[in-house]
Amino acid sequence: MFKYVCKRLLYAIPVFLGITFAVYALINLAPGGPLAILASSGEMSLSDLEALKVSLGLDKPLIVRYFLWLGGLFQGDLGTSYRTSQEVGMMIAQRIRPSLLLTGTGILGAILIGIPLGILSAYKPNSAWDHLGSFVSFIGASFPSFFLSLLLIYALAVKLGAFPTSGMYASGGGESLGDLLHHLALPAFVCGIQPIGNYIKQTRSSVMEVLNEEYIKTARSKGLTNTVVVIKHAFRNALIPVVTTVSLSIPFLVGGAVVVEQIFAWPGIGSLMITSIQSRDYPVIMGVTMLICGVVLAANLVLDLIYAALDPRIQFR
Q1: Which of 99, 107, 227, 317 gives the lowest tally of CB atoms within 10 Å of its CB?
Q2: Positive/negative CA dihedral, 139, 144, 145, 149
Q3: What mean pLDDT do residues 212-225 have?
Q4: How far apart are CA 38 and CA 77, in angstroms?
Q5: Cβ contact 65:57 at 8 Å
């Protein structure tokens, strides 16, 4: 297994370099730039802009700037934000906790509801549980996150006043756990309703497929109860596609729910990324890209190891 892990890590290096270079090239080739945004404000002279261009290294060729960024990354330096003059690493560290809290809560809720509901739908097809699962899947797939966010804000926050409309804490009200949960409820619900439909459908189809296997019929012929057959035998062997579906949420988990964070003014990675793109803050954009890319590559490796733990027939090569 050690040899397999080393091989996968070596394969990840060119993938990481390719992704980060592609993003770096695209953001630098996009119309506008940090200097153009500063020039539009009319607060800096042409000589000041030229001096700033040299100090930021924007006068160098794109490929040279990329390798300078890469060299800083290997030394643990993600650079300094053009917009705030803060260290990029510190800015990301401040935003990662709110993003993990928001998207983690939403995805955890989707797992705790979606997978059991998918099992019940497979165990009792065409029952009330199956219809409920289909309805929840339909809601999750039909409502765009921006529309659902605005709908919940209007109905539950503006009209009923039951929830706050934005932020992570109430201004001037301290940072209590109750206040955090109150602000977290609506955006976490929106983040959870999106993936829950996929979890229900994937779990249902995987379990139903396994329930038709011969060894399941053999287990039932031995007198095992349906609950034991479904939970101990069917669900365990149906876990691989379910785990794959859940793993697809990892970029969403790390990168934050961009639209939801913007609408609810949640101070996470997603809103930081949008602000940085609007201001052409290249170091912050690359810092967030590096974080998401690295976590996804590591998660894929861990996912392969989980596959082997779930299915002994899978061998490392």
Answers
A1: 317
A2: negative
A3: 76
A4: 25
A5: yes
